[in-house]
Structures are given as C-alpha cells and as structure tokens.
Known about the structure:
This is Pseudouridine synthase. Keywords: Isomerase, RNA-binding. It holds the Pfam family PseudoU_synth_2. It catalyses: a uridine in RNA = a pseudouridine in RNA. By secondary structure, the protein is α+β, with helices and mostly antiparallel strands. It folds into 2 domains: about 35-90, Structural Genomics Hypothetical 15.5 Kd Protein In mrcA-pckA Intergenic Region, Chain A (Roll), CATH 3.10.290; about 105-315, Pseudouridine synthase. About 15% of the residues lie in helices and about 30% in strands. The chain has helices spanning about 40-50, 55-65, 135-140, 170-180, 180-185, 255-265, 315-320; strands spanning about 5, 35, 40, 65-70, 70-75, 80, 85-90, 105-110, 110-115, 150-155, 160-170, 185-195, 200-210, 215-220, 225-240, 240-250, 285-295, 300-305. Strands 1, 8, 9, 10, 11, 12, 13, 14, 15, 16, 17 and 18 form a 12-stranded mixed beta sheet that branches. It has a 4-stranded antiparallel beta sheet with strand order 2-7-4-5, with no helix packed on it. Strands 3-6 form a two-stranded antiparallel sheet. The longest helix has 9 residues, at about 55-65. The radius of gyration is 23 Å and the shape is elongated. It starts with a strand and ends with a helix. Mean pLDDT is about 85; it is low at about 10-30.
Amino acid sequence: MNKRRNHPNKQNTKHFTKNNNKSTSKNQAPAKQYTVKEPSELLPFLLQHITNLSRNSIKSLLTRGQVLVNDRVVTTHNHALHPGQTVSLQNKKVSETPPMIGIKILHEDDDVIVIQKEAGLLSIASPQEKELTVYRQLTAHVRLDNSNNRIFVVHRLDRDTSGVMMFAKSERVQQALQNSWKDSVKERLYIALVEGTVKKQEGTISSWLKESSTLKMYSSHYPNDGQHAVTHYKVLQSDRNFSMLEVHLETGRKNQIRVHMEDIGHPIVGDKKYSAKSKPIGRLGLHARVLSFIHPSTGELLRFESEIPKTFFHPFKKDEE
C-alpha cells in the first residue's frame, strides 16, 4: 500500500521547528501499547485511546518523538494506521529532528517527496561543492526511518528560483517519472517578475536552446538547432517599470524562462546573467508556483501550489506611492 504523509499547516506544509517546551512528568503518559483494529490516522487514534491527556498534550507527545508505530518513531499527525499495527508511548523524549533550512515539505509518500524551496538554496551540489542543499537535507530526512533510504533527483530549480519541486524515493520511480515526464506532468506554472512593461497581454515564445562555452543558454531561431523550448505567458500586473507574468512551460529546458524573457526584451529582475539591469527584490524574480502530475504508482492526479512571494508585489507598491 502506498503510504502518504501529508504535512499539514496553513499552506499544507510542515515546518521543521525545534520544540523548546520543557515537558513535565505530569504531562507524560505512562508507557502503554495499543493495537490498531481498524484504519485510522494517528492523532485521532491517540485522542480516542488516551483519555487522561488533553489534545495539546497528545500533540506534544508526537512532536517530542514519544509515539511509536510498530516500534518506529512517528511525529506526523495524519500518519495512516492499519489493522494489526501497534501504537506505543515512551516516556523518554528522543533527540529532536534537526530543522530543515529553506525547505517546507508539502507531501510525502513511499514514492515521492514534494517540497517548497526558498530562493538561494541549491537543489543539488556538484561533487566539488560541500554547501547545504535540498538533496542533502532530504537525504538526512528519509534516513531517519532507515539509514539505507535515498532520494533521487527528478527535476531541478535554479539556486535563486523558489517554489515547488519534487524528488523520487527510489530509482525506479525516478526513471518512471523522467521517462514519462511530458505525459505525467500536467501543469508547471511559474511567476516571473520582469523588467519593463510587457504590452502584449498573452504570448508564446518558441526557440531552440543551446549552451555556450561559458555555460550560458541562448536561443537559436533555426529549426532543430538545439533543444526545442516553448513558453506561454500571461500578464498579471504591470506598470511603467515592471511586469508580473504567469508563465506556463510546455517544455522544461535549462534556464528556459530566463532565456525567453531576455528574448522578448523583458529579462527577469535580478537576472544579471540574462541582461537584467535592476534588482528591486534582492533576488531573482522567478517562482515555481504550481506543479501537477500523475502519481507514478497510484495514477492519482496531484496538484501542489505555492503562494506568490510577497516581495514580488513590492515594486508595484513603490510605484503607486
């Protein structure tokens, strides 16, 4: 069975924060064990069986890693329980899960992890680089369950691009997603903050992308000269200095949006590599807002959305003032 681990909060995400509350013996339940008799989620199961503690106290037991399912620590409230499993409590608080930096987990199951990445964080480092990456942090995360667990790159976001991205939890799933990417991925939508007033409210940019000796991508308008790239855009907001675009990718090439925005004379703000002159929000103005795909095992259509960063609206507010 495919076990899903959603990570709920205000935006259906989980924040990995350290719990500094000191527990007291009064709030700790004695070590007990319960047998699951029918399908349920972990928090409702605990609330049903532990009647001498408040809801907040039970949630604290989960946060502190004092709840075990089949002798494995589980901290997620909506962890799926199945008949025959055992749920037990331990008095001793386990070591805290280290906080994740620049990452929010939107969804996790046996096959995939979907996250929201902050700008400035590398997806994966080269062999020569040792800095913190999404890949390294998620690898540590999955190895909390089993030291042999791994994650596999399906696609990437540039260091300075924020938003939704996905990793596979096995090589089989990675290959399945990459081999069927065009059919499996139903929607990839970005928000781009670009320089100048984009006068055409909607448009499509098509070119063949190539990479120079300096590793910069550029467009060739000769048919079949490079990788074909198609980008659709729609203007959401604009003034005399900037425009905010909703960008839909028909293909997913390296730096595709950045190159195509330069091609139409409206480079993404903060993108000096592709001709930008301004940096009004202190970062690259590109955000992966929506990722929708067919789950490789269940066949279910999943859709994940991330809010537009508030800083993307700041340049327009300044103009209004």
